[in-house]
Amino acid sequence: MGHGHGHGSAADAGSASGRYVTRLSVAFGILLAFFVLEASVGLLTSSLALLSDAGHMFTDVLGVGMALAAITAARRPATNKSTFGLYRIEVLAALANAVLLFGVAGYILYESIGRFMRPHEVAGVPMMLTAAAGLVANVVVFLMLREGANESLNVRGAYLEVLADTIGSVGVLAGGFVTWAFGWYLADPIIAVAVGLFVLPRTFKLARQALRILVQQAPEGVDVSALSDELAALPSVTEVHDLHVWTLTSGMEVASAHLTIKPGADNGGVLVAAQRLLSERYHIEHATLQVEPAECAKRCQQLTW
């Protein structure tokens, strides 16, 4: 009987996360300052669109803050109590970001209904100036987080929030111009609804990705049946069971399996072949594999789960 482990994925992911701590810290400061500005002007001008944008900016502040806290916590080494480390905190933060975005979008859509029936007078010029300042802040943060969004689900959550807020700032800017130039106050709730509807599909996708990881579904793009067949087709392997593939956090796929082998087979050779297959074909670097004779496999078949 033998066991095999592949390492490197956790260290690589931790290193990648560490590269974005400084960027997230700067982004957090920028977003916090402009949230205070937008919320203040939105209240003074009675602009629902500007308050909507400020609400999204607030979720940006919380989202980036949670991303920063989660990445910092995830970089701590594994302990006897947390043997995998705290990488799942990143996924929880991404899910929390999605919940916040759903809440803000729902509130703005609800408030917009009242504004359609009773339009409020809105000061267009302060609305435009504040939206323009918010747009600059969002573009800066957007560019800072773009690279990290491809490596970390958590950073991607913050990135999507900033992307939505960038679009929202453009909309508020346009709404402010229409309000100032034509006195059409319905532009304000229309822009607010458009921002909310733009955010919802992206928020749903983020929440779905986070939930897939939390319920330990197989990573997207990994056909577990095909993987089992390929492992079973390795030399000296007669059967594969107890195969599990899941994602620990973004970019960290993990697998475990029992490989039944022929009598007299080379355990080490089977382990090396299986690890190579998982690494090269499925990019799974951390795998725990148990190589066992047929009599041990019978014990596994008696288990109920």
UniProtKB/TrEMBL annotation:
Residues 219-293 form the Cation efflux protein cytoplasmic domain. Coiled coil: none annotated. It is a multi-pass membrane protein. It is found in: Membrane. Keywords: Ion transport, Membrane, Transmembrane, Transmembrane helix, Transport. Pfam families: Cation_efflux, ZT_dimer. InterPro entries: Cation_efflux, Cation_efflux_CTD, Cation_efflux_CTD_sf, Cation_efflux_TM, Cation_efflux_TMD_sf, CDF/SLC30A. This is Cation diffusion facilitator family transporter. Its main location: membrane.
